[in-house]
Amino acid sequence: MAATGSRFTPRRIRRGLSRRAATAYARVQDAVERRTQPERWPNHLLFVAGMPKSGTTWLAELLEGVPHYRSRPFSDPDGCVLRHDICDAVFESLPGDLYSVVKLHTRATPENLAVLDHFGLPAVVMHRDLRDQAVSRYFHVKVDPEHRHFELYNTASEAEGLRHAIEHSTGEYREWIEQWLPVLEAQPERFLEVRYEWLREDPAGQLTRALAFFGIDLPAPQIAEIVRAVAANTRFDLQASLRRNQTARAGVVGGWRQHFDDEHVRLFKERSGDLLVRLGYERDVNWTR
């Protein structure tokens, strides 16, 4: 399993390089891979479309554990990725003869789905309980000076900041989920649903599901080693994680209970209590902390 473990070395090396040096390093890697990689897997691109703070970085790192796959820089001249959209240029900029992993926060708009159709791309779609997502986003923003809500969350009280995070999550990200749900139901052969809670409970099982969906068959011991290697390289310390280009904070399912007060519960029920029931997170809207 030495080859699997070495998959994580380039990511760590790139974190210490300048942008220009990292690009040059990636090109050298690409040249080496073109000479050495076998034509083994049916999909050259493993695409993950996930709601922010839903575990996409974790799943992408697991997928990078498959021999010859890795995340690669791509071109986005129109800035569509920043809008949670996808453009032809993103996929056209990736080397078609190498194996790549791309994870984005792509919305299920007709235009974005048309791009995926054009390239014939299957996708794993990730989301999670919006209560945990709101809390995760709040703490992530508090330590990310580049985020537009950084100042707000560091000057407001935690209760006020979480209220804003709940309003944001039950607005923009409720819509994100509701756009994807009918697509997942209508096209299960093209789009695979993975929830953060499922990945947290059984990472090896969910990785096996995702690999089977992409037509990749790895033995169980190799999958277990990939999971172990990623876990060994993950720290549930948000500030340390951001320095390592990761986003892990606590990873607790149901951690919202430690941070919501009664007003947060009331607000969430008002804005998205029905969605929690539809998704099976609650039996009815009478839930409490």
Mind explaining what this structure looks like?
- By secondary structure, the chain is an alpha/beta fold.
- It has a single domain, classed as P-loop containing nucleotide triphosphate hydrolases (Rossmann fold, 3-Layer(aba) Sandwich), CATH 3.40.50.
- Helix content is 53%, strand content 9%.
- It contains 14 helices and five strands.
- It has helices at 2-6, 9-15, 19-36, 56-63, 88-92, 110-119, 130-142, 150-155, 158-186, 196-201, 203-213, 220-232, 238-243, 262-278, and strands at residues 45-50, 69-71, 99-104, 123-127, 191-195.
- The chain has a five-stranded parallel beta sheet, with helices on both faces.
- Strand 2 (69-71), helix 5 and strand 3 form a beta-alpha-beta unit.
- Helix 9 (158-186) runs parallel beside helix 14 and helix 11 (203-213) packs across helix 12.
- The longest helix has 29 residues, at 158-186.
- It is globular and about 55 Å long.
- The model is unreliable at 1-15 (pLDDT under 50).
